[in-house]
Amino acid sequence: MKKEVDFVSFLAIVSILSFLTVVLKGLIGVDIDPYVQGLIFVVIGIGLAIIGNIMSIVNYLEEGLNSSEIAHILTVVVGLFSILVGLFMMPVKFLANVNIPAMDGIKVVVATLAIVLIAIQAWFIRK
Questions:
Q1: Which residue range forms the structural domain that includes residue 28?
Q2: Whole-number pLDDT of residue 27
Q3: The total number of structural domains that make up the chain
Q4: Could you give the CA distance from residue 32 to residue 86 in angstroms, rounded to a whole number?
Q5: 47, 7 in Cβ contact below 8 A?
Q6: Please, is 49 exposed, middle or buried when counting C-beta atoms within 10 Å of its C-beta (0-12, 13-18, 19+)?
Q7: C-alpha dist (Å) from residue 125 to 14, 17, 35, 121, 122
Q8: CB 3.0–4.6 Å: which of 45, 47, 66, 113 could bond 83 by disulfide?
């Protein structure tokens, strides 16, 4: 249950960042959306990496895999891709020329996973 609580904390950070974008743009006309989009993917990626237990991947590689551990590894991989996509989405000069066609697909997968996990957290685990 601890990992689920940690992920809910990461989703709360994502919600705060999203609402902060709307408030700043609506009240004072400051558009931080390009920065927040990248941060959202970085935060979700860190949350997924924690849920997948990124530190135990070394143990999996040494001791072998079974079917239940594959889900953890896939969660970590999606989390790491999410972090990379978030970093590449940042409007930073040295990353401006990076154009990876698979980024849109990764964004869709990460966003879909986040929606599913939010639904599971809100409806099933809390009850």
A1: 2-125
A2: 86
A3: 1
A4: 14
A5: yes
A6: buried
A7: 20, 24, 32, 5, 7
A8: 45
Sign of CA dihedral 12, 17, 20, 26: negative
Nearest to 106 by CA among 118, 89, 120, 93: 89
CA atoms of 17 and 13, how far apart (whole Å)? 6
Q: What is the pLDDT of residues 92-108, one digit of tens each?
A: 776 665 667 777 777 77
Q: Which residue has the higher pLDDT, 106 or 30?
A: 30
| pLDDT tens digit sequence for 56-90 | 777 776 777 766 677 777 778 888 888 888 888 88
Q: pTM for the full model?
A: 0.72
